[in-house]
Amino acid sequence: MANPSVLSSVALVFMLLAGCGGERGGEETHRAMTVDREAAASSKAAATSGDAFVEAPELEIPFHKERLDNGLTVIVHEDPKAPVVAINIWYKVGSKDEQPGKTGFAHLFEHLMFNGTENYPGEYFEPFQRSGATDMNGTTNSDRTNYFETVPRGGVDMALWMESDRMGHFSGAITQEVLDEQRGVVKNEKRQGENAPYGKAFETIARSTFPPHHPYSWTTIGSMEDLDNASLADVKQWFADYYQPANAILVIAGDITVKEAMAMARKYFGDIPSTSVPPRVQNWEIPMHINKREVMTDQVPQTRIYRVWNVPAIGSEEENALDLMTSLLANRKNSLLYRRLVRDEQLATSVSAFYYGRQLAGQIILMVDVKPGVPLDKVEQLLDEELREFARQGVSAEELKRIKQSEFASLVKGLEKVGGFGGKTDILARSEFYYGDPGALVAGLEDYARVSAAEVQDVAKRWLSEDSYTLVIKPEEKYSAAQQGADRSQLPPVDKTVELELPQQQEFTLENGLRVILAERHDTPAIFLNLQFRSGAAADGGKPGLASIAARMLSEGAGNYDSLEFSSRQEELGATITAGSGLDYNTIGLSALATQLKPSLELFADVVMRPSFPEEDLTRVKSNRIDAIAQEKARPQGLALRELPPLLFGENHPYGSPLTGSGTVDGIQAISRDDLVAFHEAWVRPDNATLAVVGDVTREQLEPMLNQVFSGWDAPESSLATIALPAVERPENTRIFLLDRPGAEQSYILAGLLLPPWQKEGAEAFDAMASVIAGKFTSRVNMNLREDKHWSYGAQAMTLDTEGNRPYILFAPVQTDKTGAALQELLKEYRSFLGKRPITEQELADYRDDEVLKQSGAFETKGQLLSTINWQLEKGLPPEYIAEYPQRVAALTKEEVMAAAREFLAPDQFTWVIVGDLDKIRPEIEALDLGPVQVLDHEL
Q1: 713 by DSSP, 3-state: which?
Q2: Do residues 587 and 548 make contact, with C-beta atoms less than 8 angstroms apart?
Q3: Per-residue model confidence (pLDDT) at position 465
Q4: SS3 state of residue 579
Q5: Can you point out the beta strands (E) in 179-291?
Q6: What is the mean pLDDT of residues 417-425?
Q7: Is pLDDT above 60 for 474?
Q8: For the chain, first and last CA: distance in Å?
């Protein structure tokens, strides 16, 4: 049997491109490491003899595993770090368990499971959103379906009652009305995915690389025809077949003991019976004996090449090397194909690759975005040459070591969360699901560390082209259910006691005047820093995109390192240096291992004090940014977010640039190296910055290091520039602007409203109002368009936290034939909130409970704490403002919330930007007679 790895750099790729989720969507694909268990017991001397060996981090996730009499596998991990408990339940059913003609069932059923149960009818999210739950979602992929949430310690009974209720008491709650509603939601999700550029790529890949009856020949979301044909009887049978204890894995982790967790598992799940689970295919690898080429068109700004090879499934002996091979080929600045195609020849703007390991078969998928104007055959010829040379010559052992060290560093930093995507419950459940051992993923780290450059070259030679079907029949297991279980007459109450222990903030000033805020947290050996300085897009002047290009160029070399050397040095240290740009601030961040803090800070100081801004890299970065702007314009949401700011603020206002932060083509083209140097000198200075630090370090250790590495970085004699943010008045009446996207299957509705700058007085009342009307899944707007009408996959509003006038932005992608009606419904919700349907006592009570209890998990990770400290410093607030937040929320009244609504909301002063097929939607929008309608010119 093979040992896997917990490491995964491609999970996000599949969450965005291939996955499907209940509330927001998301399929995870984690790479696995393989090892012969007998070989793993060999001597360490033999293990370290490999040419690319690195020391694996000494990690463990202690667990208790037990199987209940009814077949349910229960895994418990104790982690008392924060007063929260994460629950993650995996059902061993995914889209591979469907049949042709009935595809999409697994994902459709995941949606249905969020609609309440026989004993708790209504929205499944409601008790959780009153209880401070976080990281709550469900996901479906080819192999499995899972549901997860993190709750305050006092909400564990409630959460397990709900999870067990939908396992054992759900069938009676499935009605034709609920099925039709969620069928509409899923169809809108499918439209939304297909409406995106390259949105049909993976459906085509699945159909073309597997034979018609192979379980991976269709995508998780299924087909429109199959979704329409799903009957109530089909859905109920799906539940009976697969949603039973013997087909599930329950993981409980956090501030709970094994004894407590097992008692609760038996209480809530022990009386649920199991039957025989349907037989399933266990392996079906398809050799690639074809050379097939397809060409299709879509509304995209540039050509993209997908190259796919069928390779072994999860659990093969070559898993590690296959995965490492993709990192050596692509995804990093130092990778072979990135260097050759993007940097050297500049034939492409991006290149990526990943090992897509699944239960039945695996694939290597390579993607190249061809630079506009470059001949396609030239790129493909060079790509083929590089792949052949890679298999012939192999790779550098030093480069392979850097990749491993970088992945290990990411793992160490990511092990702080007990729940959610990639948290400890996910690791334990994935290990058990794929390998039958909750500890397999962590145990596989040593084997990952031993993979040699020769092994990587061997898999490149073998798979950069091979064959089996096996059927195993086992005796049917007997299951028994407990005679008594949990009380199903009412939902267990949630303990609303919240006790937060936040680390004290220590403030000191460096010798050069830089203000430093330190919060010590010693749970994992990692340190996170963030240097924040006033500037941002508001400081772009006449060159929109300057601040973001300045941030982007910081990774292109600093001090004595060029771009590739800089990237290599980060990997050697296990450090990550990032730079970001917002409307009002730019930031430079560092995450480092405690053992490598000093050299990591030295590299960080090079970025802050000595960026090189190389001319040749600037030319490439500008060219790629212009291509990225074209990509934005091809996406309905990107196009709308680019067009809205100048309509709200005016083209000459500092906030008048695209909200995507990418700038304009003219602005990017005008940027010179001198502009970057001037920007850096003007804004990156110790009297314009604050450094926040969270992690495993004391002031006594940190302060002398910072003084040393920042020696010579002093504030210039010139006075600090200021950024004028003139106040902007709202338009007196509604304005509607249309953008034509012929053939669009959806319309993208965006609305903006300017608000005054943020003030701490009344901030909580505004947040409560905004959340109830359009700020969360159960908001009035989303319940209307998604759940009641099922015209949209999701509608929501957000407020940008700017220094000047704050934009309030409402967005709602809707099916084309409901554009005008959806616009009416949105306005109706806002008008009624200000009129006949103000916030109710129940809505406010739910919001108060949820916000207060959510604080239990709000500071679980160092990154969460650092983010909050950054916001606190940005607003000039004392530390106690954060600590007192629950008390302020708990004291909110209806009168305060409605006062905020009357002060800030003005639905008849919205500026609307709608992207869609104007031949279909323009007449119905004009017929509404809401205000002047203007068509905006735009180009892809």
Answers
A1: coil
A2: no
A3: 64
A4: strand
A5: 248-254
A6: 89
A7: no
A8: 51
Q: Which of 786, 914, 829 is nearest to 185 (CA)?
A: 786
Instruction: Read off the tokens for 274.
Output: 């199991």
Q: Which helix (H) or strand (E) holds 163?
A: helix 156-168
Q: List pLDDT tens digits, range 385-415.
A: 998 899 888 788 888 998 888 888 888 887 8
Sign, Cα dihedral of 694, 695, 701, 705: negative
Would you give the DSSP letter of residue 774? I
Number of Cβ within 10 Å of residue 51's Cβ equals: 13
Residue 722: CB atoms within 10 A of its CB come to 8
pLDDT 10s digits, 668-723: 999 999 999 999 999 999 999 999 999 999 999 999 999 999 999 999 988 999 99
Report the DSSP beta bridge partners of residue 64.
76
Is the CB of residue 485 less than 8 Å from the CB of residue 272?
yes
User: Distance between CA 162 and CA 128 in Å, rounded?
Assistant: 9
Residue 531 pairs with which residues in a beta bridge? 588, 691
Torsion of CA 857, 863, 866, 871, to 10 degrees: -80
| CA 284 – CA 342 distance, rounded (Å) | 36
Coil/strand/helix, residue 888:
helix
The region, left, alpha or beta by phi > 0 then psi within -120 to 50, assigned to residue 559 is left
Q: Report residue 138's pLDDT band, with 50, 70 and 90 as the boundaries.
A: very high
429 burial level (CB within 10 Å; 0-12, 13-18, 19+): buried
Nearest Cα neighbor of 351 from 372, 335, 375, 374 is 335
Token reading at 30: 């984690």
The backbone torsions φ and ψ at residue 631, rounded to the nearest 5 degrees and listed phi first, read -60, -45
Burial of 338 (0-12, 13-18, 19+ CB in 10 A): buried
| DSSP-assigned letter for residue 55 | P
**Scanning the structure block, which residue is given the tokens 């926040």?**
692
Q: In this predicted model, what pLDDT tens digit does every residue of 852-864 receive, in sequence order?
A: 988 888 888 999 9
**Looking at per-residue confidence, does 938 or 599 come out higher?**
599
Measuring CA to CA, which residue among 885, 825, 826, 821 is closest to residue 851?
885
Quote helix, strand, coil % in the chain, to nearest 5.
Answer: 45, 15, 40
* Single pTM value for the model: 0.82
Q: Tell me, what's the pLDDT at 288?
A: 67
Q: Are 422 and 29 in contact (CB under 8 A)?
A: no
* Each residue's pLDDT tens digit, 597-649: 999 999 999 999 999 999 999 999 999 999 999 999 988 999 999 999 999 99
- What is the maximal distance between C-alpha atoms in the chain? 83
Beta carbons within 10 angstroms of residue 414's beta carbon = 19
Beta carbons within 10 angstroms of residue 560's beta carbon = 11
